[in-house]
Amino acid sequence: MDCVEEITAEVDLKRASILSQEHAGKLPDKETSNAPKDKYFLVRILFFFYGLNSMLPMTFFVVANDYWMYKFRNTNYTNWDPLHRTSIQIYFSSILSTAKAVPVMIVSLLAAKYIHKLHLRPRLLYSTLVICAVFLSLTIFVVIDTDDWQVMFLIVVVALMTIQSMAGVIFRISHSRLLARFPIIYQKFDMYGSGCSSLFSIFLQILSLAIGKDPQSSALIFFVSGTTVIGIAFLLGLVSDHLQFYRYYVGDSSEDIKHPPKTFKQLLQAGYCIRHIIIQLFFVLVCMTCTGPVTYLVVSEYYGNGNPWNEKYFVPVVTFLIHDLVGLVTKYFARPLMTLDSSTDCRCWYNNVLRIHDFYTLIDTPGHRADKEVDILLGYLIPGYCKFRKNAKWFTLMVILSKLTFVPLYFLCNAPTGSKRKIPILLPHDWQYITIVFTDSLCMMTLSGICMLSTSKLTEGDKQKTEDSFIVISIMLGILLAVTSPLGSLSVKLL
């Protein structure tokens, strides 16, 4: 269970929102009324799959916990047993995050500064092709017996996932630039795709476990389905260049190549404006890096009684599904980001509901540009009512207190390591773990919503500085992830 993907998604989509407002002023000829028809809604379908592609690789393989435990099991047993875990099973999650951290950080730093020098379309296609190739490679390994060379298989998996993560960074940055060129309705379809990516992975995993007779057959169904989705995204990307509607809005990306890279001074100024957000990111990543590997080890208190819920479904439903459902419900109650100054009172609840209704009415009106309403799709219900600029330090304190409260609780849950634990299991019951996951997810999604929505206020509405601030957040995510990644192994050793 990792919140990095949620934060990354908010960064990319919010940056696309800022860019869309910027393009609205620079491209006055790109009126919706003059655009060619989107035949068969192919471009909308493309953006839905691009939204899936932007987030699916980040969550897909993490959800396949049962498969990885089977591949790295003690070969003296036919199936894996949580009471007899191997070292690779225990440290798999932390090994993966640690190995990926530095390469992803380097690519993030270089991409944030220089990626605009490459043309947009090749970046999207080649990065998608690389991701598809990684999915296909890992799918092939499902049917290969790796019991006699588990360490070598681990090295191959880490290498492939590192390549995929680097390609994912390039795709998401390029994708946010593409998204900014299209009307708001296409950002909406993209958000549908990215929003359901985690749920798609989890429900597909549950369905695969239900259909498959053993971990290998379940994994084959799961991986083939994921590879198919990425393959469809790549094929739609190839076809897109032949669609008049797509070419009309994309235009000539050669203008982007001429822009000079951001200077260190510009990024430093933007970083100072959002210093409270950076502090929050640091605490969130430290805590999630510590608790993530622990949650992968948690099993039901009734594991071993033969009940399918306890044997198969407890981990994907509780550890992954609850977290994502909480996030989805929180995002559903969306409202626009207030751009008023900090001395102005926040709007009341029913006015926000009316604005949401008005938004969906406006986007269905032919020829209407709804750029100013884009933040309706990017908000959370609770965060929007807070005047963050005056209360930044208090929200930062809330983040710190929240994580300090929940992090120790995960270490006390039922997470067997295969040997005698150093920390006693004081919270052994399933209902206790479910309560912790639900409450922690609710607090985290609310506070991360405040964090992302308040960026424009902290930069005083300056579009250029706001865009720079999201570049800074992307860079800091890469750096902090690299710095904190070794904590995963240390947290498992503490158990």
Automatic annotation (TrEMBL):
Membrane-topology annotation of the record: Multi-pass membrane protein
* UniProt keyword Lipoprotein, yes or no: no
Q: Give the source's domain of life in one word.
A: Eukaryota
A Pfam family recorded for this sequence: Nucleoside_tran
Q: Does the keyword Membrane apply?
A: yes
Which Gene Ontology cellular-component terms appear in the entry?
A: plasma membrane
GO function term, MF aspect, one: nucleoside transmembrane transporter activity
UniProt entry keywords in alphabetical sequence: Membrane, Transmembrane, Transmembrane helix, Transport
What is its subcellular localisation?
A: Membrane
User: Which SUPFAM superfamilies does the annotation name?
Assistant: MFS general substrate transporter (SSF103473)
Q: Which residues cross the membrane?
A: 47-70, 90-112, 124-144, 150-171, 192-212, 218-239, 277-298, 313-334, 394-411, 431-450, 470-492
Family to which the UniProt record says this protein belongs: Belongs to the SLC29A/ENT transporter (TC 2.A.57) family.
Name of the protein: Equilibrative nucleoside transporter 3
